[in-house]
Amino acid sequence: MTDRPPPPPRFASRREYVDRLGDPAYWMPYLRTVLARHGLPDADASAGVIGTYPTFLVGAVVVKLFGHFPSWRDDHDVEQAVLRLLDHNRDIPAPRLLAHGRLYDDPEPWPYLVVERVPGCDWQEAALAPPQRHHVAEQLGAAVRRLHDLPAPTDGPAARDCLAARHRTWGSLPAHLADQVEAYPVPPSYPRRLVHADLTPEHVFVDGGRLSGIIDWGDAMTTDPHYELGPLHLGVFDGDRSLLRAFLAGYGWAVDDGFAHRALSAALRHQFDLFTSPRLRLDRFATLDEVAAALFGVDDR
Fold first, then answer.
1. Domain assignment present for 193
2. Of residues 190 and 269, which shows the higher confidence score?
3. pTM for the full model?
4. Are 195 and 227 in contact (CB under 8 A)?
5. CB 63 within 8 A of CB 101
6. Would residue 269 count as lying in a domain?
7. Residue 169's domain is classified under what CATH number?
8. Which long-range contacts (CB under 8 A, 24 or more apart) does 46-49 make?
9. What is the domain extent for residue 46?
10. Dihedral, CA atoms, 78, 84, 89, 92, nearest 10 degrees?
11. DSSP helix/strand/coil, 252
């Protein structure tokens, strides 16, 4: 292996970049450079979660490269900052940061992170039986509570916040509900907390029927903790309110009369579109208040 990288990756279009994201053969020369620099053993690579940046499982480690998209610098800096913070809080199950660096001194240097590989598989692949799902949901609630209890950073991730609603562009809400989004009242601000902000089935790992890790911290930010609930409940829990109740119990979340409204308001203003699943059947609701009660009304058993 050599620690000198091949020429920088170049892509003629976004489509070409996306087509290469999960291609180990294309990225292997860059991965070998990273491994050689940090004295890590060479091994075959396989694609990790295919998202925004090339991420590969290589033996006992995961290598993530940041580039191409305009947001690469912020995403890299946030993920590195959060992983450093979590290294000092090992009761939060996140992968340990092992190494970092940059491939080039170019204007696009392709920085990278090397983290330990989390044991087990993601929530969806685990196919847990219902009692295990509720148990892991409770464990996840306790872990997220520990995350939210950390002192909120004053720089790095704190500079990021939730984006304005873009539902007319996304088109996942029925038109009559999309027309209500801008006027849907935003509740008074909660104390800002460090949140993962992208708790999806691919990012929650399970091993032996227990929570083993939470991965992919590049979207972390400091904001209202209700912001965490949309991707978690509509993605990981697939709208199952019994799992949401288990999570809230593990967290120790005090649910009040405004909980459903706060949760939906945060979900509507999330940076990602959380309402694409046809299982939600949102066209059966006339108002967003009805949506809030149906999706997040945890007092209704």
1. yes
2. 269
3. 0.92
4. yes
5. no
6. yes
7. 3.90.1200.10
8. 47/21, 47/22, 47/23, 49/122, 49/202, 49/203, 49/215, 49/216
9. 14-116
10. 50
11. coil
Chain length of the chain: 301
Average pLDDT value over all residues in the chain: 91
Which amino acid would we find at residue 102?
R
Indicate the helix (H) or strand (E) that contains 134. Answer: helix 130-148
Place of tokens 């290469």: 20
Tens-digit pLDDT profile for residues 26-70: 999 999 999 999 999 999 999 988 889 999 999 999 999 999 999
Is 262 a domain residue? Answer: yes
pLDDT at position 142 over 50: yes
Distinct helix (H) and strand (E) counts, the chain: 11, 10
Burial class of residue 265 in the structure, from the number of CB atoms within 10 Å of its CB (0-12 exposed, 13-18 middle, 19+ buried) = buried
Regarding whether 199 and 82 lie in a shared domain, the answer is no
Residue with tokens 């309402």: 275
Q: What is Dmax (Cα atoms) for the chain?
A: 62
Is the predicted pLDDT of residue 247 greater than 60, yes or no?
A: yes
| DSSP-assigned states of every residue in 255-298 | --TTHHHHHHHHHHT-SS-----GGG-GGG-SSHHHHHHHHH-T
Amino acid letter for position 295: L
Domain closes at, from 61, 95, 116: 116
